Every structure is written in structure tokens, then in C-alpha cells.
Fold this sequence. Notes:
Distance between the termini: 24 Å
Number of helices: 2
Largest sheet: 4 strands, mixed
Helix content: 25-40%
Order of helices and strands: EHEEHE
Strand order of the largest sheet: 2-3-1-4
Radius of gyration: 14 Å
Amino acid sequence: MLLTNFQNYVEKFARKFDVPINGLGGPMTSSTNSQGLSIINFGIGSSNAATIMDLLSCVKPKCVFFLGKCGGLKKTTELG
């Protein structure tokens, strides 16, 4: 399972594996290749991250990788 917050990653995945994108125009677009590898664009924000993790807990994927970036503006937040 690949998680991202960039729609273009889903589009590149779909092109590479010649598969459709599910949910275009809605939240959390996704695509799955013939070997069962899926990518989901869960969007931005902690509520979306919590939602996708809650949904994945029901599916129980073997492995989850996050592709993207995250950050914050608080100066008190430490790295690590």
C-alpha cells in the first residue's frame, strides 16, 4: 500500500501500470495494479491521515509506505 498526499503520484502510478484511477473528482483517489499494489491520495491534514489509517486498520495491508512530505509551522516542534 502506498499513501501519498500528491495527486500526480496517483496519476504517474496509473500511467506506469496502465490502470484506471478510482474516485476522480472526489476525496482519496486511488489506483491498484494487477499484482495488488495500491496507491491512495489521502489529501492534506491530520483528520484525513487519521481517517485513512482507520480505514486501513480494517483492510490490514502487509506493508504501508508514505510518499510525500509533511511539515509544521510551530517553532517549538523538534525534529525526530
